[in-house]
Amino acid sequence: MSADTGIAAEVALYETRQKVYPREVDGRYTRLRRLAAFTLLTVFYGLPWLHWDGHQAVLFDLPARKFHVFSLTLWPQDFLWLCWLLIMAALTLFFVTAIAGRIWCGYACPQTVWTEAFLGIERLVEGKRPQRMKFDARAWTGEWVARKAAKQLLWILLAIFTGFSFVAYFTPARELAARLAALDLGGWESFWVLFYGFATYGNAGFLREQVCRYMCPYARFQSAMFDHDTLIVSYDQRRGEPRGAGRRGADRRAAGPGDCVDCTICVQACPTGIDIRQGLQYECIACAACVDACDAVMDKVGLPRGLIRYATENQLAGRRTHHLRPRVIAYGALLAALAAGFVTTLALRAPAAVDVIRDRNALWRTLPDGRIENVYSLRILNKDSSAHRWVVETEPRGAEVIAEPVVVPAGGVGIVPVRLRSAPPVFDFVVTASDAEGISARRESRFISPESVP
Fold this sequence. Notes:
Number of strands: 16
Helix content: 40-55%
Oligomer: single chain
Shape: elongated
Largest sheet: 5 strands, antiparallel
Strand content: 15-25%
Number of domains: 2
Distance between the termini: 88 Å
Number of helices: 16
């Protein structure tokens, strides 16, 4: 309520969105960003159609509980490596952020990549930035409806193809395509195709920069990983201020204004709609579109490039940049150790495992001939991609092993009852695939007798 008039006034708690129309620019960073987007989209859409050793190259087959990654087949029991990989991905993000800021956001984030694709369709149908702005300001006409409908149709087709490609990582792509052509998709498959497609359509087509500004948690905690030596997109205020126009080739320093001609093209090129000249902002995704825009202007007015550039705060202040610093060394060392451990353990991953469970009813039993017998249950896990016939032995040899061979399917578990007689106090159970060379597993166990019990 106003103190002067006593009339209630409505106060907006949220800023009204102003649609961002990113200006088309060209330059080394723009070309690099487009190349990254093209490569990542090609990999995402293409991998489900690539076959490897008789199966889809990358397939997370949930019903069969096995995950194909090229020549590697993982099972639910290998969940450790997935957790390990996620930890490495998070640490890699921290490491890269400490060195180069939000470069992940500008070049490889899915939101950035698909927004680039959807924006490319918009430019193709509606034209460049000035045309799109005028087009949106028009009243409805036949051309307006036709262009908008064409854009929406292309967006929807790309979104549905994106949803289809996502589901193709869980259901074989060729099987999924055949069922889609026959309109015979299952309920869950239909749901995820539509859900993922709708999410892509909404995030990349409409929300765009709002995802980066308001929804992305990374934008909120990135400052915890930044320091004065982190490489960020920066405006050189000492060189650029005071802003002002000037004649080409004139001595701008003698004339008064700095190198910034205040053309605002850097603002027009920004996909999140910020003014980089106001300093580092959490909305900046480090895509360097403003760098390419400013470099082009500097070329036109005959001034050196780099008014806006990748730089550290220490560089801008004329101080030395410390590339090797405690947090970078710590992130790098930990990441290298995790990567080495991941590769080593994955390379040494055993194709089988065995667990030993003793008979809980009796520690031992005495046979009529006076010999001692222990009873066990062996749980054999076959991690190989083929079924195998397993036999049970002991090391050191000499004990009498009574156990029937068992066939365990790929990724399956087999239970084998074992009766063991006249074994040493400590020994190893060894299970071996009789139909394949070099596949075995062992587990230490104990043989209990009256003499071994105090």
